[in-house]
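Milestone M4 deliverable, item 7.
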Amino acid sequence: LAWVLECQTGFGEASRMTQFKDKSQKEGSARSTVGLFTYPILQAADILIYQANSVPVGEDQRQHLELTRDLAQRFNATFGETLTVPEAMIVKETAKIVDLQDPTAKMSKSSPAGCASLLDDDAVLTKKFKSAVTDSEREIRFDQVNKPGVSNLLTIQQALRGMSISELEASYEGKGYGDLKKDTAEIVVEFARPIRERVATLISDPAQLLQLMGVGAHKARATAHETLVAVYDRVGFVTLPD
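Output delivered:
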C-alpha cells in the first residue's frame, strides 16, 4: 500500500514534510536516506490500511495526518471510494507536553532527563518532576509564553485531576513552585503506577504476551488484507488467490 500511495505523492509534497526537511538540513543530503524521505507515506499507509476513522495524535503529528488525509482523498478521487479519510483526534489541552528540563522543546525520549515515561519507577518520576525547570518568578499562573515550565505542570495536572486551569491557579494562590512540583509528581506517580504494574505482569508471562499479540495480529491482518484486495482491484493489480 505504501508503494501505491508513493505513486500518488508529489516529490515537492514529500520534501516539505517537517521531519525530512529538518534532518536533511541539519545532517546534509549525504546522510539523508530514501527511507526517511518516504517514511511519512509509510505512516499514511499504516493508518489507511486499517480504515481508521480517527487517529489520536499530538499537535506535532498534525502535518503527517494531513498528508494521510490528502492521499486518501486523492486515491478515492482517482480510483473511486476505497479508503477511509481519517479525522485527527487531538486533545487540545494536552496536545503538546513540553520537556521538563527545557520547556521550549516538546517532551521526547531523545531527552531522557526531561521525559517522564509511564514506565519509570516512582522514585525516578518524582525526581524528574521535582527538578522540573520553571522560572525566576514566584506566581503560579498559566502563561505558555512567559511561564512555559509552570504552564506545562498545570496542563499535566489539568489532564489527570479533571480540574480547569483557573481552578488550579486558585488552589495554588499563596503557594510556591515546590508545592506545584511535588503535587504534580504525586499525581503522575499515582496515574502511572497501575500502568507500569500491568506492563510488568505481561512481560513476566511471555507465553500470554505472545498469545495476546497473536490475537491482535490476526485481526489486523484480516483488515489489512481486505483493504489491499480492494486497492489492488481499483488500480488493476492482479490479486493471486490465498
